[in-house]
């Protein structure tokens, strides 16, 4: 189905072109659909700053938007926009969550760590050549959107946006260490599915309806089970367990474990280890 992209003619709407609700282009605007207080945004937004400045905050990662910057906001992020200058002008387009999913569906699966990476690395300062390239890209999106002879307008826009998101993902791959290289393939698959469900806002509701427990309760239960298993493993000390489970430090792990079991990690270990094992570990663990 090609979709129905149309020129918007309503006065003061700010929208120049639209593919129903899925995709909207704003060729020159002073405002963004972002609140001044942190709130989860349901849209993906790609912004190019023409002039002026504004302060943007994504998951407490603050940045001043300035001219010739490209801002990439993914759907589902916690965003706020404040201190907008009177001369602030931008070009931007928005995409819905479902349209974003359609874009990514034709691309090799992104690492879940990419979405965390983009919480901090969401702005790109552009050189003159890069600016000209983006303006050309922006104009190409519009041409493909409004071409009356193009029976595949929706598909054309999706393919162009796939190129954009592949470029962004390539930037992530080049500029970050892939910490998932040693993670087992099955775990990657489970992690990807988990993030998809979380971003769709269905996980807690569905899991609780089916099992009687919230997703948070299930995660806590499995974390405790993992910790108990590691604590009864005679080859690991407490600090190694902290690193393996990615707690910030021993105190953080200790508080979490005690809150859910009534015992400190060392107390639990002593309770279940043999006399010989207790002697070996008591010298180096103080939780």
- Going across the biggest sheet, name each strand in turn: 1-2-3-10-5-8-11
Are there runs of 5+ residues with pLDDT below 50, and where? 1-13
Provide the helix percentage. 40-55%
**Major sheet characteristics:** 7 strands, antiparallel
Mean pLDDT: 78
The number of helical segments is: 11
What does this structure look like?
This protein has 287 residues and is an alpha+beta fold. 48% of the residues lie in helices and 18% in strands. It has a seven-stranded antiparallel beta sheet. Strands 4-9-6-7 form a four-stranded antiparallel beta sheet, with no helix packed on it. The chain is elongated, with a radius of gyration of 24 Å. Mean pLDDT is 78; it is low at 1-13.
Please give the structural blueprint.
Layout: E1 5-7, E2 17-19, E3 23-29, E4 39-40, E5 44-51, E6 54-58, E7 61-65, E8 69-73, E9 78-82, E10 89-95, H1 97-105, H2 112-120, E11 123-125, H3 128-146, H4 153-175, H5 185-199, H6 203-211, H7 215-231, H8 238-245, H9 250-261, H10 265-272, H11 275-282
Antiparallel strand pairs: 1-2, 2-3, 3-10, 4-9, 5-8, 5-10, 6-7, 6-9, 8-11
